[in-house]
Design a protein that fits this description.
Number of helices: 8
CATH topology: Rossmann fold
Radius of gyration: 17 Å
Structural class: alpha/beta
CATH superfamily: NAD(P)-binding Rossmann-like Domain
CATH class: Alpha Beta
Distance between the termini: 29 Å
Strand order of the largest sheet: 3-4-5-6
Oligomer: single chain
Low-confidence stretches: none
Order of helices and strands: EHEHEHEHHEHHHE
Number of strands: 6
Mean pLDDT: 95
Shape: globular
Length: 218
């Protein structure tokens, strides 16, 4: 938490409560289904009431419904856009009001290397993550004069349960495309987010920080 009071949001309450227990008394659990528009609209107020204010927003939700373009259903498209992009828009819209009044704020959205490079079978996911980047630039230009920064962090391949399920051949092929020769650690993404949310990042806005081991040099 790096000294911040945090509200942990998501649909799986048990992991959130476990994380809150590790973080201590300055962590609060505020469950939310990001596919539910009304719940998303209410979340910033709930979080602010729990924490005593809201001056940093981190959009870190992401789902996939992969399929080739010609086979992708409307439902697969809509589900990914709703959670990855529309929910972020709603949260940013609601959160920035208080930041404008306070004349200070930080918004950091976790996008993806796929939002810049594209990826076969992930047209919906790529569109949602590219949308986050464009949306963040637009908002950054609107609120910069109020000492509010709006940025993105774009991870490459990170060591997670998903990448851990890859077989040896898949991992070898993947690592061959990464000049650093390894996948990133979740902590390396967290460090990038913390920087952009800190006072040290005050003059950085409308930017996308790529954390991908050189896989895409953008």
């Amino acid at each position: 938490a790096q000294g911040a009071t945090v509200a942990l949001c998501g649909t799986r309450v048990a992991p959130l409560e476990a994380l809150a227990a590790d973080l201590g008394e300055r962590a609060f659990v505020t469950p939310c289904d990001l596919s539910d528009g009304a719940a998303v609209d209410a979340l910033p107020k709930q979080a602010a009431e729990a924490m005593g204010g809201l001056d940093i927003l981190v959009n870190n939700a992401g789902i996939t419904r992969d399929n080739l373009f010609m086979r992708m259903s409307d439902a697969e498209w809509d589900a990914v856009i709703a959670v990855n992009l529309t929910a972020a828009f709603r949260l940013m819209r609601a959160s920035v009001r208080g930041m404008m009044k306070a004349r200070w704020g930080r918004i950091v959205s976790v996008t993806s290397i796929v939002g810049v490079t594209g990826n076969p079978g992930q047209g919906n996911y790529a569109a949602s993550k590219a949308g986050l980047i464009g949306m963040s630039k637009s908002l950054a230009a609107e609120v910069a004069s109020r000492a509010i920064t709006v940025n993105c962090v774009a991870p490459g391949f990170i060591e997670t349960a998903m990448t851990g399920a890859l077989n040896a051949v898949q991992k070898e092929k993947l690592l061959g495309a990464i000049p650093a020769g390894r996948m990133g650690a979740p902590e390396e993404i967290a460090s990038a987010v913390v920087y952009l949310a800190s006072d040290e990042g005050a003059y950085v806005t409308g930017q996308t920080l790529h954390v991908n081991g050189g896989m895409a040099m953008i």
